[in-house]
Amino acid sequence: MQKYMSRKLKAVFILTCIFLTFNSLAQDKSTLRSAVPVHTGVYDPAIDMKVESLLRNMTLEEKVGQLVQYSAGQPTGPGTGRTDYNDMIARGQIGALFNISTAKETNAFQRIAVEKSRLHIPILFGLDVIHGFRTEFPIPLGLASTWDPLLVEKASRVAAQEASATGIRWTFSPMVDIARDARWGRMAEGAGEDPFLGSAMAAAYIRGYQGQHLDAPDSIAACAKHYVGYGAAEGGRDYNTTEISEHTLRQFYLPPFQAAVNAGAASIMSAFNSINGVPASANPFTLTQVLRNEWGFRGIVDSDWTSLGELIPHGIANDGITAARKAFMAGVDMDMVSSLYHDHLAALVGSGQVPQARLDESVRRVLRVKFALGLFDHPYADETREAAAMLKPESIELARTAAERSFVLLKNSSGPNNAPILPLSSNIHSLALIGPLADDADNMLGSWSGLGKNDDVISFHAALVKHVGEDHLLHVKGTDIANGSDEDLTAAVNAASKADVTILALGEDAGQMTGEAASRSNPGLPGRQQELLEKVVATGKPVVLILFSGRPLTMPWAFEHVPAVLAAWFPGIQAGPALVRTLYGESNPTGRLVVSWPRSVGQEPLYYNALSTGRPADKHDLSKPPAGGDDKYVSRYLDVQNSPQFPFGFGLSYTTFRYGATQVSQKQLKAATLNATLNHDGRHPALTATAEVMNTGQRAGEEMVQLYVRLQGTSVAQPVRSLQGFQRVTLGPGETKKVTFDLGPEAFALWNDQNGFATESSKVSIWIASDSTQGTKAEVEILP
Ligand code: BGC
Known about the structure:
Elements: H1 2-26, H2 45-56, H3 60-65, E1 68-71, H4 85-90, E2 96-98, H5 103-116, E3 124-127, H6 140-145, H7 149-164, E4 170-171, H8 195-210, E5 223-227, H9 246-253, H10 255-262, E6 267-270, E7 274-275, E8 278-279, H11 284-294, E9 300-303, H12 311-314, H13 320-330, E10 335-336, H14 340-350, H15 356-372, H16 383-389, H17 393-406, E11 408-412, E12 431-434, H18 460-468, E13 473-476, H19 486-498, E14 501-507, H20 510-513, H21 529-537, E15 543-548, H22 556-561, E16 564-567, H23 575-583, E17 657-659, E18 663-664, E19 668-670, H24 671-676, E20 687-695, E21 701-712, E22 722-731, E23 736-743, E24 750-751, E25 757-758, E26 762-769, E27 777-783
């Protein structure tokens, strides 16, 4: 029976993998609310048997130990927990350690666990491997801007291969938080504001990290974080409170997590924020009802750094023992750094406040992942493999491709000879390269840069010198990121005046101004960079602005006055070569925005998939002050337009594309039929939408064709548009291709007033478009 079960499960697993791989290659065809989880070993009955036999031998203290995790290296939050790890490991009191990053160090701790502890249970070593381990790729916001899940999967595979070579078998990635507010520094770490794209990216990271089999020595367990709603922090201030209705949670914030679970994520991290008054790290609704009961998640729920201790300042516990009980009973299996489970869990079980069965369940989840990773059989890292795994030529090549594809060309208007200023002509005799980020290695690595080293980075300046030669390049800093002197500014203006074209490299400090605990109330150009920009533009010489940032920066002046602007995010170790290839047209930009780019911070939170108000302003000219009457009493600002500077999905190419009308295979659908096939993973396409896309320019180029849907007349109001598909199409000059999207019932489903996902009779608009504001719409009716 056992054998049969296991074979049957394996068959389901393999079929599911084949299906999901096919789906991932098809990119756009993947659905949001897929119902077929990939179990990646965490659900293997053979593993369950091993877990049960081990569990039977464990003491209460040893069980608790498996649920305790400490940082043993560079701290990534306040405090470090404890330091007497060697003794604790020998006593079986620690299940996981993180922030250690060499094979020698992990092996040293592992030897204690395996050789000295009574039951020889190996330690699970974790690290924030966020966008690369040693080979640093663009920050996740940049990776998402590629709109290329397969590339993201390959990048995370490289990260897994490198990290695992040091004994790290667990990464606290991907961050799948929806981010709608550019003030929030952690926007840099995620895939932006859209749940459909965010779900595709979530699954891609997990496939890359976990590979085909979790027990392969180069696979690492993923951890989708921060569950849930962390990105909705009020005012964009990190760690702040969130108020999220169940409808909004279900339709926007939860789907990327569900996609992660369905892709087989071995773990989930509970977030810092409170949701509607209940902290996410002690929230029975999200952690138990949704995650366990509805989605069937069997992996580990790990807390965020001291988020259990933080239940006290949150105000739902007055002491550590209550915090431990509330978090544990809500569904947090493992305590990162707080030490509260170590201190109180055994007593809570002893007094019956935590049932023994509940404790066993959490221990099972941790042991399952350890068995699934093959840690019991291969607990040690192979120290001879470590160096060779890093920075392989093909990994570096992939880092360059990823960087090139992450760049979003925001503006490219005409230069002196009436041609767009980019790509730069190779006839330009002298270039000025100005700005604090021009000759920078550290910031190129982005925040959470793992083991990335400055020496691994080819800076923009180094690559440009190589391309144009020292004699043709005037390089001056102009200003530091946050401070600047008059002399430096003057030197920059002099350099710009002497050059034919000036390239400005401006932006944020990756470590100080982006990522965790790096919210900004004014996310514009820091320090004196705006002044530098204005002075350089005033020379009258053509200017190309390269922006390095972890968020869209509010800088409307630049978008009005600078002819060419490229959003480069933080591109990773191949920043320089990728930028030079892009500037000189060897690579044609294909990146598209995954966040709405604000004109003013006062517009935040700003996201394209918003609801309509009762007084929409879309028919009004918001570039002028209200003329009174109808023009006044609409949902608008008096001092800024409603629209973003650049919309979600936007990005230019060195060629241009024209879209034909959106066409649909049917004008009517039936809700009853759609509902019968909902959640079947796109196996029942309900409708086909097509449009012709033509390359109207002089160069070959790639267009990211996007499909948006709007539902009207539903029980709960739906966004003015929501992304339901995307496809890359490569077109030679003058070439036209017909792009086809097969939409499953999920594309028309909503979390409705009956508290469930369903399709309803409604009017449907469908656009195939170059971004979230473009396209001609086709209309379809959903009948009951
Ligand atoms: C962050 C997490 C991270 C953890 C461990 C926390 O401060 O919020 O994203 O995984 O630290 O480093």
